[in-house]
Amino acid sequence: MRKTLLITGASAGIGAATALKAAQAGYDLALNYHSNKAGAEAVAVQARAAGARVILCPGDVADPDAIAGIYTQVDEEFGRLDALVNNAGVVDLIARVTDFTHDRLRRMFDINVIGAILVAKEAVLRMQAQGGGGVIVNVSSIAAKLGAANSFVDYAASKGAIDTFTKGLSDEVAPQGIRVNAVRPGIIETDIHAKSGAPERVGEIGPTAPMRRSGHADEVADAILYLLSDQASFITGTLLDVTGGR
Ligand code: NAP
What we know:
The protein has a single domain, classed as 3-Layer(aba) Sandwich (Rossmann fold). Helices cover about 45% and strands about 15% of the residues. It contains 9 helices and 7 strands; from the N terminus they run βαβαβαβαβααβαααβ. It has a 7-stranded parallel sheet with strand order 3-2-1-4-5-6-7, with helices on both faces.
């Protein structure tokens, strides 16, 4: 039987690359996006061409009602959930901590932390009810370790929360055969940098990694697909850095 996978933030970047590789690997897909409907539809067309059954589940993961709507679609269309890639995330304009506003911090933590935790909660409830285990991969960032001083300390802190959540949740659900891991990408060539008003970051910071380059969304997707797979059957609570050595 084909496995069902929900990917949040699947309209672009790492989420889109993961969707295409997952379709090729035999998953049926629930693809969440927030604003980029055209991007999500383009991913869906390619995933269907690779043989996947695909549903689009629009919704802002910062909104609990929207998360309920996403899962209503998953329940009605697939009736089960085997895997989750908790990928939706945002940065913000480059700023120092002394410039942060309450609104900025609320948005960052509502999307990157509270949204991700609530999305994972709903996945775990379904996996527990089904029996037979399940897999969750959270998309953190190496910023959680590095701190991102003078650019996005708030983003780094939000991903630090995801690292801790990954370990704690993995311990809670391991007895039910549910594995929970995270990938921590370094500088990856996606639109997230332009969205933070700094498209030049990839060219500037990428070459400072030990491997002297930035990464591609496909390279992160490969790590995610590995953690989803049975090849990672004894791996849980782990943070896998995909950074070119950073
Ligand atoms: P991206 O190209 O900007 O894609 C972000 C995705 O998240 C989009 O599909 C976007 O959907 C979705 N999204 C944003 N806010 C959302 C919300 N409130 N509700 C639902 N979906 C939302 O960025 P990316 O680089 O692929 O980033 C994916 C993940 O990797 C993020 O968690 C990011 O923090 C992490 N990461 C990226 C890098 C990097 O260098 N690129 C490094 C470390 C970690 P819409 O466009 O439809 O709104």
